[in-house]
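Researcher: Checking consistency across runs. Here is Peptidase S26 domain-containing protein again:
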Amino acid sequence: MSSPRPDRTGAVAPAVAVLLIAVLFGGLVGTWPPFVAVESGSMAPGVERGDLVVVTAADRPPWGDLATTADPDAPTRLGGAGDVVVYAVPGAGDRPVFHRLAFPVEAGEDWTERADPALLSGDCAELSTCPAPYDGYVTHGDANELYDQSAGIAPVVPEEWIAGKALFAVPNLGWIRVGIDAAAARYGGVATAVVLVGSAGLAGGVCALFVGRLRRGGRR
């Protein structure tokens, strides 16, 4: 009699389950990926480097429209008033920035008149982003000394650059993503993906073997 074919579904089940949960979560919050790994300390102490932040689409109910620090009824998120958003400046390597919305501006406005002087490096005539070239937002990292638009991090941020806003953060869970990004930058995306898939398969196989032994031990 031939031996029964080994059941290998247990080896991939953990990876499939994680992927399914991520897809379902992405559908719920309306963004993909639904998580952001924080790579700097610019939003400390509300969010530290290595934290994993869950984000939602900017207009996704029930969390409402975008709110800034200047709004009188701004919600408190991640240690401060106003929404913390993820945005990317086109042509700047598409490296996402994770900062708070300070206040909205209109095209042609001298926004320094409404700004906190302590967060400015000069007056409107000295800033390349002032007057505002279009409608958008002035942004700020909670731990930074200047507005993004004063520090040269970004011009005024229009709403179409905003990929999502933060809901909450999970401490230290983002180090995995930070490590993956660092490996991809050093060794390439393909090599990193091969290692990750192999590691996931190995981990799934070890888990399946362990569970199988427990089951066999329980039948004795």
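Researcher: Does this match what you'd expect to see?
Model: One thing to look at in this run: Residues 1-32, 189-211 have pLDDT under 50 and may be disordered.
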